[in-house]
Amino acid sequence: MTTALYVVGVVLILAGVVSIAWADVFSRIGWPGLLVPGPLAGAPIAESVREPDWRRAAKIGVGTLIGFVLGTAVKYAPAVILPGLALALDLP
Questions:
Q1: Where along the chain do its domains lie?
Q2: What's the pTM?
Q3: SS3 string of the chain?
Q4: What percent of the chain has pLDDT over 90?
């Protein structure tokens, strides 16, 4: 259920960005900005353009993914731990 809501949210955000870009005739947001879905794909693509070594680009992509996952875990850990502590300690 949560994954489905996430996918719907991402699609709605992308649709909003595309409609804003379309209304502005793609003068501020171009097709590359719409086609490259964030740093997970952008980092290895940019590295492969700069240096055509695919192994290095793949390492950068994996590093970006690991950093993204760890950063997300660090951001969401307090949101899970603090309510859990409040429920466990029965705080009012």
A1: 1-35, 39-92
A2: 0.47
A3: CHHHHHHHHHHHHHHHHHHHHHHCCCCCCCHHHHHCCCHHHHHHHHHHHHCCCHHHHHHHHHHHHHHHHHHHHHHHHHHHHHHHHHHHHCCC
A4: 0
